[in-house]
Amino acid sequence: MSDSTIVRDEAGLLERIQAPEGAGREIPDAATRDVIGRAPVHTVEDLDAAVARARKAQPGWDALGHEKRTEMLLAAADAIDANAEALARLLSREQGKPLNGPNARFELGACSAWLRTAATTVLEPEVIIDDGEAHAVLHYRAAGVVGAIGPWNWPLMITIWQIGPALRMGNTVVVKPSDYTPLSVLALLAVMNEALPENVLIGISGDGAVGARLAAHPEIDKVMFTGSTATGRKIIEGSAGNLARLTLELGGNDAGIVLPGTDAKAIAEDLFWGAFINTGQTCAALKRLYVHDSIYEEVVEALAEFAVRMPMGNGLDEVNVLGPLQNKAQFDIVSGLVDDARANGGRVVTGGSPASELGELFYPITIVADVVDGVALVDKEQFGPALPVIRYHDVEDAIASANRLDVGLGASVWGDRDEARRVAARIQSGTVWINSHGGVHPMIPFGGVKSSGYGLEFGVEGLKSVAVPQIING
User: Fold this and answer.
1) Deepest in the core among 191, 342, 372, 457, taking most CB within 10 A?
2) Catalytic residue selected from 10, 85, 94, 249
3) What residues form DSSP beta bridges with 468?
């Protein structure tokens, strides 16, 4: 497919979903700050109407049965594949992530893969007891209407994580994308709706009031949210009135522990992508790295040597694998945390100041050594391209440091596999990776503990989370 055809297809997607000329809200290109298009500005009244349509459509969608829904969802995955390059370009411009590397094209591939897995995963009724006297079977039924509230960092992939299982189980879904990345999400939904019945999947683009209404709406049976812990708490409060079931994937500050005796050069590349995938803007990225004193300088040096070779710039340039921060608020957080770490004795090994020559929101990969627990860059989630590396002397101290914060989305342990597994068992985190960080699989459950949220996604457990259990006893 020629470049001109791809650009034309991207423009065609935009025309299908954006607000008319002179209306809507302008959405900037994350790299250039030029206007990409105009997002619709839906109101609470628009949301109410969308929920009503989804409610009306839900019994018919459920009645189709698993086999027919699977067929339609696989067709929706085919539609994503057919439009993948145009969607990737729109995503790259709106979110900032480059086309190549583990970024925009990678994200579109994940959308298709996760949707296919959700569509074909089997969830059989479970016989609880059948002893000749009692007979009880556990079934999972559709919850009803699901409200899906997504983030701006992986807007398409995480939307699929929410809506794929929900649709598979017979729910209808109303999607509220982030205000920062509405266009790519609405385009994804438009593509999927080519294969789905009307009003089974509806997108609503609005402000915080719309999101708050979605969480509190009396006709919403389940809310799925990925985003900050602060917003997650508001969703919990808002859902109290309707007692909607919740799946919350909230903020994290993932710790990694490098054990003594580990080969620094052998792990440098995986450490780098564990921390800096999507330019660090990932919930389960490695955000604070604890390294044993005996190999501390080797790890810092190996990580820095790999980091400086990774090209950063406009996402549409095929060479780049790192992009800008998505928005000014996140740029200011990262910049402020690095400045504070430097003021508190941190040694900036790479980066350390804005890459203004690349554009307004570019911040280079920044590795800060010689910081300690209590420094803001360690204790607060930076959600960007800055990694503190903390020296430790005893593994017990590293475990205590990993567990000291009120978050627990992911963590990792690096070194001898058997020893790493023993350490991993003592870390308070929903997932602990061994000799890697952040990798997810559509059949392996994923979720957080403590203030990182609750509920599981992916695989059979993900299907259960968007359904309601029913016991047939007798």
Assistant:
1) 457
2) 249
3) 141
Residue 11: per-residue pLDDT: 87
Edge-first strand listing for the sheet containing 254-258: 347-350, 366-371, 386-392, 286-292, 254-258, 410-414, 431-434
CATH class for the region spanning 254-440: alpha beta
Give pLDDT tens digits for 282-325: 999 999 999 999 999 999 999 999 999 999 999 999 999 999 99
Whole-angstrom CA distances from 238 to 32, 69, 222, 363 are 37, 31, 12, 36
Q: Which fold has domain 3-250+452-473?
A: Aldehyde Dehydrogenase; Chain A, domain 1 (3.40.605)
Entry pTM: 0.96
Strand 407-408 versus strand 449-450 pairing type? antiparallel
pLDDT of residue 443: 97
**Strands 410-414 and 431-434, bridge-based pairing:** parallel
Q: DSSP secondary-structure letter at 121?
A: -
Write down the domain spans for the chain.
3-250+452-473, 254-440
Q: What distance in Å separates the CA atoms of residue 228 and residue 252, rounded to the nearest whole number? A: 9
DSSP 425: T
Positions of E strands within 259-399: 286-292, 347-350, 366-371, 386-392
Residue 290, CB-side half-sphere exposure with 13 Å CA sphere: 25
Query: Cα–Cα distance between 148 and 165 in angstroms, integer?
Result: 12
Assign residue 213 a region: left if phi > 0, alpha if psi is -120 to 50, beta otherwise? alpha
